[in-house]
Specification:
207 residues; mainly beta; Immunoglobulin-like; six-stranded mixed β-sheet; five-stranded antiparallel β-sheet; 15 strands; disordered N terminus
Length: 207
């Protein structure tokens, strides 16, 4: 049983423990609670070539969590530390569990489809990318894949997203999001391309 305080929790421990007066520190389990969790794999190949396993808790408020450090274990293996900022969580608590090298992701610029031409006093560039994801695990996985297209901050620069392969597009940030499942051994390829038009006096560097 626990009583919530403004800045902490008081735990009433029903089972007595014997603590030796030997000057040593002891760890005691004061509460154990099971919680449903949804595992998804996340990748942003533009920034990192590796894929991360993420645990999503939708009923995290039932855990009475406070902000602070936490230790992460997966399959009884200690993976490291993380941090929870409970006051910043809205709906779902997401914890990055570990990198998983059984999921491969590769991002390529399709240079044969890229184009650059002059249109009056402007330059128009067309750029195409291809992302390949392969599931080398023996189980089905849920994948969340992110990339990003430029967002214009100038009236003289225009960005047009042409092909998105059914991605969700956040127009404010330019972030593209694909969500899909992969069967064991399955490979999925997503493609997208965009055009950017800007004055000759400016320059654009793709990445």
């Amino acid at each position: 049983m626990d009583k919530e305080k403004k800045l902490g929790l008081d735990y009433i421990i029903d089972e007595p423990y014997t603590i030796l007066a030997d000057g040593k520190n002891y760890l005691l389990e004061i509460k154990r609670q099971d919680q449903e969790v949804n595992y998804t794999y996340h990748a942003i190949p533009k920034l990192d070539k590796e894929v991360f396993l993420v645990a999503e808790f939708t009923n995290w408020r039932e855990l009475d969590l406070l902000s602070g450090d936490l230790n992460i274990f997966y399959d009884n293996t200690y993976l490291g530390k993380s941090k929870i900022l409970a006051e910043q969580i809205i709906d779902t608590l997401e914890l990055s569990v570990a990198r998983d090298r059984d999921i491969q992701v590769k991002r390529e610029s399709k240079k044969e489809l890229n184009d650059k031409r002059f249109v009056g006093s402007n330059v128009k560039e067309s750029l195409a990318y291809e992302i390949t994801v392969k599931n080398n695990k023996r189980t089905k996985i849920s994948m969340v894949l992110n990339d990003q297209v430029p967002v214009s901050e100038y009236k003289s620069v225009f960005v047009e997203l042409n092909e998105t392969a059914d991605a969700e597009h956040d127009e404010k940030t330019g972030v593209l999001t694909w969500k899909f499942d992969l069967e064991p051994g399955e490979t999925k390829i997503v493609k997208y391309d965009f055009s950017i038009k800007y004055p000759k006096a400016l320059s654009y560097r793709a990445n």
